[in-house]
Amino acid sequence: MMGDYDIKFVNKEITPFGGLSLFLKMLERCHFAEHIEMCGVPSQGSNRGYKPLQLILGMFAGVWCGASCFGHLDVVRYDAALCKLLGWKRGADHRAYQRYFNKFSQGVNQRVFCELFRWFFSELIFDNYTLDFDSTVMVREGNQEGAAKGYNPKRPGRPSHHPLLAFVSDVRMIANYWLRPGNTSASTNYLAFLEDTLSRLQDKKVGLIRMDSGFFSGSILDYLEKERLHYIIACRFNNRIKYSLTHENVWAEVADGLEIAETTYQAEGWEKPRRIVMVRQEYEKRPKAAGKQVRQLELFEDEKDFGKYRYSCFVTDLGLPAKIVYDSYRGRADSENRIKELKHDFSIDDFVSHNFWATEACGNFIVMAYNFMSLFRHALINSDKKKFLKTIRYELISTPAYLGKTKDKHILYLARSLKTRQSFLSIWEKLKDFSLPYSTEKS
């Protein structure tokens, strides 16, 4: 048992997030402030209003420190030492963030984030990249604009938003984010979204596009082929595809319990047949296999063994061996991890406003905070493991600190154990030499 003790208070301003200095220094080295001004974010109508840069940096800092809704952004406001570190006289109330994001409209969002993302990706050196597309469901509890009943497997009948996202697989970053009403399908507005994404990644070549079955559409396939963009897209199971899967006789075993075949398929309305790669995995040998079950179809009651398998099916224009096509598509699962991290670590689905475009603007800034965190992992953390924000928050950001001053400069005094000081200091030294453009091939 702990001995008897009293408590006392000290007047020294101490922040529990001294490690945030690393991330603020990175933004400074990237000249983020200058580019925020250049991309034309909305200005405040009053001289008493907080500067847009302060509110954007405040949101970054709040999210990185663990804020999971607008109300939690007060964690930055009441941290006097952190406000001084950021160069602010006072921090903004959470309502100031909500009022500011209400200034964003559809046109403003398109202009600001197209310019901001285009600048960011122009400073990263990579090419011949893989672009993944996915959508997700964000459940809403109120009557926010655009919240509607639609596809919602976890909470059927609840209103939601259904955003569309584009991921650059090679660098584990997000190239685009559009918020959409909850009653839209996965492929709604996809072609406009693709064009907008490619404009943000200008002067870089797309090597491959991967999408799930929600994008299995003849119009999408026609567009990709017209633009000469290679693709692998999961097929949506209809009776004709299921018949091909369960009546295929020539399967090549490529691993224990994993077999692959291929055929051609032309849907009604398609101008030509396309290559289909078919995969089946045996339940008993691969109990965690991805894929679908087709045993319930009365059409196939005369078949005896298809119920032992889970099936997957992909349409592609690639001429590579079927096994390589399958392996290439499997990498798309990483985009699901990015979505989980956005929701669980960055709380993107909890920062919601009544105004639809305000919610989209807030989501885009969170995506940008995610990209900077990913850049930090690439450039400054020496680890083969891709650490999640929660781990980085525990290992680096959560460092008690206070600001002191000598004759000529401010000093941030950090409370870290002797064992962890060197790793922290090595990142600080790397930041002195860090600059954009940055080659992701170094990581």
What distinguishing features does this structure have?
443 residues; alpha+beta; 3-stranded antiparallel beta sheet; 15 helices; 18% strand; elongated
Rg calc: 25 Å
Strand order of the largest sheet: 8-7-3-9-10-14-13-12-11
Outline type: elongated
Mean pLDDT across all amino acids:
90
The proportion of residues in beta strands is 15-25%
Helix content range? 25-40%
Q: How many helix segments?
A: 15
What is the SS-derived class? alpha+beta
Tell me the major beta sheet: 9 strands, mixed
Low-confidence stretches: 295-301
**Gap from first CA to last CA:** 48 Å
Beta strand count:
17
Write up this protein:
The protein has 443 residues and is α+β, with helices and mostly antiparallel strands. Helices cover 37% and strands 18% of the residues. It has helices at 20-29, 32-38, 52-65, 74-77, 80-85, 94-101, 106-122, 190-200, 218-226, 239-246, 322-330, 333-344, 356-380, 389-397, 418-433, and strands spanning 14-15, 124-125, 129-135, 138-139, 148-149, 159-161, 164-168, 173-178, 206-211, 231-234, 252-255, 258-265, 274-282, 309-316, 401-405, 410-414, 438-439. Strands 8-7-3-9-10-14-13-12-11 form a nine-stranded mixed sheet, sandwiched between helices. Helix 1 packs parallel to helix 15.
